[in-house]
Design a protein that fits this description.
alpha+beta, 115 residues
């Protein structure tokens, strides 16, 4: 199964339909799809985690990219386009537990140790 197919499968359990998420990120964020990775991300304010999941919200002065969906090896996701060209150095995401914001440099350092 390709990374894009895996991402689509993750969306089948309810919530936002996959095609809606892809369209929203295509219009206002980043969509990266290769044979090895798939990523949906978009600009957000790191201090507004209650708005990260709102695909219609366009933040004033975003300072981070919210990772909506990422599939594939972290080093390859980084090589495919993180951080993004507009200079934001913060990544926002949900994992186990509360919303998280990390500096991109911490993520790249962690990815290097995983090789």
């Amino acid at each position: 199964m390709s990374p894009a197919e895996q991402a689509a499968e993750m969306h089948r359990d309810g919530g936002t339909p996959f095609d809606t998420a892809v369209a929203a990120h295509f219009l206002r964020g980043v969509v990266i799809s290769t044979p090895r990775v798939f990523l949906l991300a978009r600009p957000v304010r790191s201090d507004e985690p209650d708005k990260w999941d709102d695909l219609t919200h366009i933040p004033d002065s975003p300072d981070a990219h919210y990772i909506w969906c990422a599939v594939g090896p972290m080093p390859e996701l980084i090589a495919a386009g993180l951080p993004f060209a507009d200079g934001k150095n913060l990544l926002a995401f949900y994992g186990a537990g509360p919303p998280r914001v990390v500096q991109f440099s911490r993520l790249t350092a962690h990815a290097k140790t995983q090789h």
